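Throughout this chapter, every protein is written as a compact record of paired, labelled lines. The reader may check this reading against the record printed directly beneath this paragraph:
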Amino acid sequence: MISRILVTFCVLIFSVVVPILEINASHVFNPEWPAHARFHEVWQLITNCGIGLLCLWLVWLKDNVQLASVLVVLVMGGVLVAHAIQGSYGGSMLSGNISQTVFGLELGAFAALVAVAMAIGAAVLHARAKK
């Protein structure tokens, strides 16, 4: 049961919290962003929400915590990779609406790291419980 709750918490980060933080003037409605960049932002939000729903279905109805955990790691791990290579493409996690650090990491990167660790932990716990 704890593994399901862990994955659910991770899913809420990218399916609920991130859209709340990004559907505003700093992201989706940012007039300084090219229209194509806003398109990609909305596409990413919709895709991640869909992946989140799939994860919840896998965890709660199909008892497939491992696959849901892999999906969480792909989504939130992607945040970490994008953060790690942001200098190569001129990106930044800082958006103006939140700019805090936790243990030296930008808040978004820290949240992604926690979600990845929780998803891996959930998969391990679930696998052990099945044995």
Q: What stands out?
A: The two ends are 15 Å apart (CA to CA). The mean pLDDT is 93. The CA atoms of residues 82 and 89 lie 9 Å apart.
